[in-house]
Amino acid sequence: MTTLHQLLWAKSAKKETPDNWKPVLAHLLDVAACAWEVLLLEPESTRNQYAQDFGYPQTQEGRDTAMRWTCALIALHDLGKASPAFEQQWTEWPKKAEAATLGLDWNEGRTGPSHKPLGDVVSHSLISHATLPALLTTHGWNDNVARHLADAVGAHHGFRAKATELAKAEKPKEQGRGRWEEVRQELYDAVCTVLDVPVPPSIQTFSGGPYMRLAGLTSFADWIGSSFELEKFEHGHLEDPTAYFERARTLACEKLAQIDWQLRLPLSSTAQEFADVFKYMVPEDEHFQPRPLQTATQELLSEVAAPTLLLVEAPMGEGKTEIALYSHLTLQRQLGHRGLYIALPTQATGNAMFGRTTDFLNHVGGGRPLDLQLLHGGKELVRDFQNLRVHPNTQPEATDPQEELNGRSEAQRSVTAREWFTVRKRALLSEYGVGTVDQALLGVLPVAHQFIRLWGLGNRTVVLDEVHAYDMYTGHLIEELVKWLHALGSSVILMSATLPRARREALLRAYGADSAPWAEYPRLTRVSGGAVRAVTVQADASRNKTLQVRGLPESLHAVAARTLELHAQGGITAVIVNTVQRAQDLRRALADAGVPDDEVLLFHARARNKDRRSREERVLAQLGKNGNRPERLILLGSQVLEQSLDYDADVMLTDLAPVDLVLQRAGRLHRHARKEEVRAGHVKPVLHIAGLTPEAVPDMKGTAWQYIYQPWTLLRAWAILKDQPIIDLPAQLDELVQRAYQEADPDGLGADVQTRLAAALIRKTTQDSGGQAKATLSAIVSPETFPSGESKDPRWDADPISNDDEVGDEGERPVGGTRLGDESVTVVPLFRQGNSLYLDPDGMKAPLTSRDFGNAGLRQLNLVSAIHECSVRLSRYQVVKGIAAHAKANGLSKIHWSEVPALRDALPLVLDQQDGRWVTNVDGLLIRYDFELGVVYG
Fold it and tell me: Which parts of the sequence belong to the HD Cas3-type domain (predicted)?
């Protein structure tokens, strides 16, 4: 006898082959089989988490029972396909007449499809969400838990249901009554029978962590299950649903193998000494000597038995990256973590870390195949990433060892980047990843498939580097992320030079710390099971240095004069100013003073990518640890010189900035040990600070500093540093930062300065409160208060931040809700000669054609790379406002760059040659591209 559910379709070839279709039950069991096989490939710790979610003991029996219920619930994600709302969408459905005869009528009595416009169709996922709670409660589930379970599995299309959408799905004409309810009961019973589930557990709550684990696994299993080929399905197989489920498990294994989803195993099954792990970093005849901070980390993590947060506060050069990697190795072995993600502030820092992580995995992975992904919008153009790519999504065939995988060595071949994971919403599912913090933060924002991101980050080691580098808005999002990582059983490694006390306490409490004990700097703070331990570690004495601090007026004239004076003494003079405009003006002043071009290196962000990269390479080649140092050089730049670049200056001049940033800049002063004669006239490290004169507060408006930094932080820096003739690093680093962010004013300030500080503090407090409030409103709620039931939280009833999984990142712009800041746009300078446009003005390369702006041209990676290499990101208001009109006026409005992630928001900036200069006008703003100065305004 034919059961009702055998008549209902879930997947079909529709018009192509109308007889080729799959019943609802078959798809439900396909997806359940995929979830089952995924869980079998997970470490036992993951299955323990699911057992805990459902109130079962962390035993083999408890894990098995939890797996059965988890997979059964996941199977029911498409229960809503057994409804008029869904079944009517295929007018050629071959069983519709038979179904109508058996009472499966359409829309309150009609026996044919309603032919609704597609946009008016209520999604079957909403029907699942609306109908599943009643079935669950009827069979013994708690009412509140049932609603939350239905919410989790019903969200598999990317978003939790809005209350308004759910109300439509409650209508009888959409769900179907009578026989429709019977068929949904049949499907529920069939799934429960096949999965052999026991009586429902007696849990009374189903909070944020369990919700994300269920929702994430549901979507992933549905992606895999939906890839089962229709032509391989035979209706006769479904006569025995249990046997069908076993066949589906076999197919699930094949599909998972095709995307290289492997058994999650620890990199090391035995404890290892820090020195042994990183011996690959030194020549074979040398011994890797851990620094005191690294040795202390090994001791602090040796006995942890629960997911752990480790906060590392130490100066640059203490080996924090190795600490993060070693921490993962240890925590993975002890806690069963399923992978690692390292999150950094920018694409540039992410690219550098990607190479170091690749080396680490190749040397500690024991030859086991590992997948490593790079997560940011420009990854397609990163050589280290492209070298790991494996095409297509199948196992690489055995070839000659010298030719396999593009000739990479045996050690290199253990780490690859499989193609399936390169789609951004899937990338966090890879076992290992490096990228921007934005990609992780999207997990706590209401964007498409945010729960997939959180599930991917769950039960992992997650490293957040340079956590001091964010404003209040992004900083608060990071706190929310830490809360969710704690709820998902992940360990978190936070790294910073130092943090203000309030920020430190907030991060510790986000991970469930019951207190925030203090320890002297440098320090390690461990949170595990709510208990906190903070320890002081002796810094590497060989890196101690005493800086002499000398102030000067903030005027450009004074800065230029001091720079010339320092340059005359020889050696490397680093000059860091707070704006690109100021750097360009100073560069012109130095040229006017007769400084040879080859003795000045200008480095800032307002230059084409390739121009910026070539200068970065020159910085590292000449001023890096083993660089070929010139006798004299002025390294001049903006804040990019305080970020991540490993260079060594003999003397430094910096604009006044917040104290922590001044000290971060000073970290490049006498960074590496060198002979005194190499330092020329700068044997002792001296830090010159523009705007630091005791008799007057600097002009923050005229310099535009107040638009870059909060005036309060600048006033505090002036008040603290003006009476600081020497700074001992790292001994005084933490002390100065803590003083800088205390609200109490330093002693001995005049009434005028006190008044300015008070007004600036009010402004800062208002801005910080606004940033935190915006973050609170932007983020999903914290795991402990995550809403159950019908998703009534207004954040979910509003339009999502993004329906696009391919959002970008980078610290220079607000993206996908992860950052605040001025709006910006990527432009590609194009140089017009005659009727042709060139990426370079010499005209030697072939000009761009209309094909290069269309779909066909953008399929060529070399062209995409060439265009991206010539792009530059600008935030000037007139450019952001007028660049689209500029492109249209130059006949370039119909371009398809937006269809390529690396060029998603890029637009052309067409320049013409006038009086030997390349210029254009955008919205009334004169723009010039100068190959020495970069983009120049006015």
Answer: 17-224
Same-domain check for residues 714 and 595: yes
By DSSP bridging, strand 523-528 and strand 531-536 are: antiparallel
For position 179, which CATH number holds? 1.10.3210.30
Q: Which of 238, 258, 278 is the last residue of a domain?
A: 258
* Structural domain ending residue among the three candidates 710, 729, 748: 729
pLDDT tens-digit map of 246-272: 999 999 999 999 999 999 999 999 999
The CATH number covering residue 661 comes to: 3.40.50.300
Contact 275, 265 (CB under 8 A): no
What are the tens digits of pLDDT across the range 331-347?
999 999 999 999 999 88
Q: What distance in Å separates the CA atoms of residue 765 and residue 760, rounded to the nearest whole number? A: 9
The closest alpha carbon to 725, from 694, 750, 747, 746, belongs to: 694
In this predicted structure, the answer to whether residue 93 has a pLDDT above a threshold of 90 is no
Pair (718, 854) in one structural domain = no
* CA dist list (Å): 470 to 564, 643, 811, 814, 831: 34, 13, 9, 12, 37
Inter-residue contact 158 to 448 (CB < 8 Å): yes
Structural domain count of the chain: 3
Residue holding tokens 């001992």?
728
Lookup result for tokens 């010539």: 870
User: What pLDDT is attached to residue 2?
Assistant: 55
Domain span at residue 839?
A: 825-937
In a domain, residue 610? The reply is yes
What is the C-alpha separation between 282 and 291, in angstroms, rounded?
Answer: 14
Tokens of 361: 């995995």
**Host H or E run for residue 356:** helix 347-364
Q: What is the pLDDT of residues 8-36, one digit of tens each?
A: 888 887 666 667 889 999 999 999 999 99
Q: Which of 566, 875, 545 is nearest to 690 (CA)?
A: 566
Q: Are strands 825-833 and 872-874 parallel, antiparallel or unpaired?
A: antiparallel
The answer to the question of residue 633 being in a domain is: yes
Of 714-723, 858-867, 889-898, which one has max mean pLDDT? 714-723
How far is the C-alpha of 774 from the C-alpha of 765, rounded, in Å? 14
Residue 550 has pLDDT above 80, yes or no: yes
Residue 714 sits in the same domain as residue 858: no
Which stretch of 61-65, 570-574, 612-616, 820-824 has the lowest confidence by average pLDDT?
820-824
Q: Is residue 414 part of a domain?
A: no
In DSSP notation, 400-453 reads: -TTTHHHH--TTGGGEEEEGGGGSHHHHTTSSEEEEEHHHHHGGGSSBTTHHHH
Cα distances from 38 to residues 76, 458, 463, in angstroms, run: 17, 14, 25
| Whether the predicted pLDDT of 117 surpasses 60 | no
pLDDT digits (tens, 9 = 90+) for 457-504: 999 999 999 998 899 999 999 999 999 999 999 999 999 999 999 999
Q: Is residue 708 part of a domain?
A: yes
Give me the phi and psi of 443, to 5 degrees please: -70, -20
Report whether 930 contacts 607 (CB < 8 A).
no
